[in-house]
Backbone:
């Protein structure tokens, strides 16, 4: 049933539970396979370089299709696209668990990524339709809590499963949760269908642009031939330019370019990308610092890393409540300054720092992340008309994935450039880049105070 301003409280709780189950599956699905890559390569007779595509294929499939699925959400209804994505993700999980070869597993992960994109592309738009406008920030805080808790639990869940079972169970465990969420889909808010057609050329150009951008970054970070990398980036910007020009000519664009003419919206998107660049640079580089430089065990390194998402999970509900009452520019600026301070303290801590000393620095960065995330997401989506909520949700998810993909590629590039100087130099350089992006994000967020 459709409501003008959110759902009644009982249905709202059921809707958020449905969204939470599906979102947790998608978030955990993006990282849970990392732990089992060696076992997958061994069991399926594949080289480690091939096994890495179990992760890459999922991420690329998600990034390539976020905007097309977001457009389909506006055209055919948010709940319908979310439900189809959930069904595809659940079925692909079974295919992953039963894959007889590495090629079949990678193909199943591509399909699983398509299902995840269907859910992620409209997730925040569904939260907007679920909560009254006055409580939208609170809903986003819950959303951030789900993501942070899933990120924190992912490695532990994977390790626990692999301790008692083989790697296919990592995917098979999605089945009961997916079927449960599918049975609860009727609780989701039903948004009106826009009725306009789906623009296939825009979808193809969008997918090709982000796909080439991702493969180009991977090629740059892994030392591929320079002409091939340059060709991929040239094609990326050429197709991207064609895509933008087409959007400007359409009455119902897949990507509402006109929104970027509003300084507050453009600053919010840029701030989001900077935030995720900083977070990913730190989260990928720090384990090398903990294990190689500080001599910590994998268990200790995992405990240190967990402090960040745990802090996000604790502070996210408060951040969501504050975002309904205070300026996103102010809260976002403070949050990113706190996160940047935490990153700077991590970059300058001594090699013999205690577990407690590392943990509170990680937690400080997590607190800053949480203070930034909900207010920024609220301002981004609130600037989009309700009938284009799917597109707004797709932009938000794309900004996050661009930051994460770019951050991971930058760490690989920095490590390659500093290889002769040792791992320590690479970790320090990556953390200083993270500090730089965090500080840039704080400045961009604060500029929104002048544009209100």
Residues:
């Amino acid at each position: 049933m459709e409501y003008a301003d959110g759902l009644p409280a009982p249905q709202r709780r059921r809707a958020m539970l449905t969204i939470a189950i599906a979102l947790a599956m998608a978030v955990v699905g993006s990282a849970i396979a990392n732990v089992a890559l060696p076992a997958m390569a061994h069991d399926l007779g594949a080289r480690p370089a091939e096994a890495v595509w179990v992760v890459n294929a999922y991420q690329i499939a998600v990034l390539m299709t976020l905007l097309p699925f977001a457009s389909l959400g506006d055209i055919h209804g948010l709940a319908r696209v979310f439900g189809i994505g959930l069904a595809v993700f659940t079925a692909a999980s079974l295919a992953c668990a039963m894959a007889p070869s590495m090629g079949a597993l990678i193909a199943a992960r591509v399909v699983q990524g398509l299902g995840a994109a269907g859910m992620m592309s409209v997730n925040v738009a569904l939260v907007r339709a679920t909560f009254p406008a006055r409580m939208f920030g609170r809903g986003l805080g819950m959303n951030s809590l789900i993501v942070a808790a899933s990120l924190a639990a992912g490695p532990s869940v994977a390790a626990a499963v692999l301790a008692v079972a083989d790697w296919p169970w990592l995917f098979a465990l999605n089945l009961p949760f997916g079927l449960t969420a599918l049975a609860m889909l009727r609780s989701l808010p039903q948004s009106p269908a826009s009725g306009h057609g789906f623009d296939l050329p825009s979808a193809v150009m969008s997918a090709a642009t982000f796909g080439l951008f991702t493969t180009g970054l991977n090629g740059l970070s892994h030392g591929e031939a320079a002409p091939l990398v340059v060709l991929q980036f040239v094609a990326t910007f050429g197709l991207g330019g064609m895509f933008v020009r087409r959007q400007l000519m359409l009455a119902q664009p897949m990507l509402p370019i006109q929104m970027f003419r509003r300084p507050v919206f453009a600053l919010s998107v840029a701030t989001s990308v900077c935030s995720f660049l900083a977070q990913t640079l730190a989260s990928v580089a720090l384990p090398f610092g903990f294990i190689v430089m500080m001599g910590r065990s994998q268990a200790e390194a995992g405990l240190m890393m967990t402090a960040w998402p745990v802090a996000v999970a604790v502070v996210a509900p408060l951040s969501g409540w504050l975002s309904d009452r205070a300026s996103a520019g102010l809260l976002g600026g403070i949050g990113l300054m706190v996160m940047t301070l935490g990153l700077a303290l991590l970059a300058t801590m001594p090699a013999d720092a205690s577990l407690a000393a590392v943990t509170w620095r990680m937690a400080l960065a997590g607190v800053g992340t949480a203070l930034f995330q909900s207010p920024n997401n609220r301002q981004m989506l609130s600037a989009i008309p309700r009938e284009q909520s799917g597109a707004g949700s797709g932009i938000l998810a794309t900004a996050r994935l661009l930051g994460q993909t770019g951050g991971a590629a930058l760490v690989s590039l920095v490590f390659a450039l500093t290889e002769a100087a040792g791992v320590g130099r690479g970790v320090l350089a990556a953390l200083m880049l993270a500090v730089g992006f965090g500080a840039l994000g704080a400045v961009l967020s604060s500029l929104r105070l002048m544009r209100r």
Summary: Residues 258-452 form a domain with the Growth Hormone; Chain: A; fold (CATH 1.20.1250.20).
